[in-house]
Amino acid sequence: MSRGIDPTELPAAKSPRLSGPTTIDSLDEDILLEIFLHLPSLATLLRAALTCRSWRRAVASSPAFRRRFRELHRAPLLGLVAEPQRDAVPAFAPAQHRDRDVLAAISGGDFGFALTALLDPQGYAPDVPLHWHIQDCRDGYLLLANWDAELLAAVKASTH
């Protein structure tokens, strides 16, 4: 019996010939972002995004990706801001972590500078008392009040 071509079967697809090895740079941006979704933490994502311009641009240019990443990964506690003394400026106390990416975020953070700026070292407001008190904290912002001077300050911690 001779083997003829069955008209109901599709012809076999030809495999594309690769011109060279596949590298991570040749990945489509959507595939790269899908891989980034599987990273364990925001700190790890930040370190990955800082690897090169195209990776940073991929993360920065996609609000939908960032929103999805936040839904899948809870932000770690980096530390606490407390009022150590009644008339002292609130201070940042870093949390103890074993995750090296979180430790890198803590060590690269500028948590104290914004608070020490409230001390007014240049003397622009020498008559303002330094009685700053924490009123609220949300999304990385502190709301501080100095009721003696009738001032409010919103301070955002930043990481480098």
Automatic annotation (TrEMBL):
All residue ranges annotated as the F-box domain in the record: 21-68
Gene3D superfamilies xref list: 1.20.1280.50
Region annotated Disordered, chain positions: 1-21
Database matches in SMART domains: FBOX (SM00256)
One Pfam family cited in the UniProt record for this chain: F-box-like
Superkingdom in the source lineage: Eukaryota
Alphabetized InterPro entries for the sequence: F-box-like_dom_sf, F-box_dom
Protein name in UniProt: F-box domain-containing protein
